[in-house]
C-alpha cells in the first residue's frame, strides 16, 4: 500500500507530460501550416528570394520540431500506458479477506482521480 501514493504522483506527472507534449505537437503543426501559407503568399507576391528561402528554412525547422515532439509524445504515452497498467496491477494485488472491503478498494481504484485523468490523457494523446 505504501507504493500507492508514489504511483499516483507518477501518474499525475506522466499525464501532465503527455498533455504538454500533445499540446506542443499541435502548436508546431499549426505553426508549420501557417508558415507554409506565408511562404506561398511570398511566392505569389514575387518577394525577394532571401525572404522565400528564409520562410522555407523556418518551415523545415517547424517540421523537425513536429517530428521531435511526435517522437517524444509517443515515448511518453508508452510510459504512461505502462504506468497505468502497473497501477491497476498494484492496486488489484491486495489480498483482502472480506468481500466488502475488496469491493470498496475496487470502487476506490475505479474512482481514483489520478488514474482516471491518466487514462483520459492517454486516450486523447493516441487520438
Automatic annotation (TrEMBL):
<protein>
    <recommendedName>
        <fullName>Tubulin-specific chaperone A</fullName>
    </recommendedName>
</protein>
<dbReference type="GO" id="GO:0048487">
    <property type="term" value="F:beta-tubulin binding"/>
</dbReference>
<dbReference type="GO" id="GO:0005829">
    <property type="term" value="C:cytosol"/>
</dbReference>
<keyword id="KW-0963">Cytoplasm</keyword>
<keyword id="KW-0143">Chaperone</keyword>
<dbReference type="InterPro" id="IPR036126">
    <property type="entry name" value="TBCA_sf"/>
</dbReference>
<dbReference type="Pfam" id="PF02970">
    <property type="entry name" value="TBCA"/>
</dbReference>
<keyword id="KW-0493">Microtubule</keyword>
<dbReference type="GO" id="GO:0005874">
    <property type="term" value="C:microtubule"/>
</dbReference>
<dbReference type="GO" id="GO:0007023">
    <property type="term" value="P:post-chaperonin tubulin folding pathway"/>
</dbReference>
<keyword id="KW-0206">Cytoskeleton</keyword>
<dbReference type="GO" id="GO:0007021">
    <property type="term" value="P:tubulin complex assembly"/>
</dbReference>
<comment type="subunit">
    <text>Supercomplex made of cofactors A to E. Cofactors A and D function by capturing and stabilizing tubulin in a quasi-native conformation. Cofactor E binds to the cofactor D-tubulin complex; interaction with cofactor C then causes the release of tubulin polypeptides that are committed to the native state.</text>
</comment>
<comment type="similarity">
    <text>Belongs to the TBCA family.</text>
</comment>
<dbReference type="InterPro" id="IPR004226">
    <property type="entry name" value="TBCA"/>
</dbReference>
Amino acid at each position: 500500500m505504501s507504493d500507492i501514493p508514489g504511483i499516483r504522483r507518477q501518474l499525475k506527472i506522466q499525464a501532465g507530460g503527455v498533455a504538454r507534449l500533445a499540446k506542443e505537437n499541435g502548436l508546431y503543426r499549426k505553426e508549420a501550416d501557417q508558415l507554409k501559407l506565408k511562404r506561398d503568399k511570398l511566392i505569389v507576391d514575387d518577394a525577394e528570394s532571401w525572404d522565400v528561402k528564409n520562410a522555407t528554412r523556418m518551415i523545415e525547422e517547424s517540421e523537425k520540431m513536429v517530428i521531435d515532439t511526435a517522437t517524444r509524445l509517443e515515448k511518453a504515452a508508452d510510459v504512461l500506458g505502462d504506468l497505468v497498467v502497473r497501477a491497476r496491477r498494484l492496486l488489484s494485488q491486495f489480498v483482502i479477506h472480506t468481500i466488502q472491503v475488496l469491493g470498496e478498494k475496487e470502487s476506490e481504484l475505479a474512482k481514483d482521480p489520478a488514474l482516471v485523468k491518466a487514462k483520459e490523457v492517454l486516450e486523447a494523446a493516441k487520438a
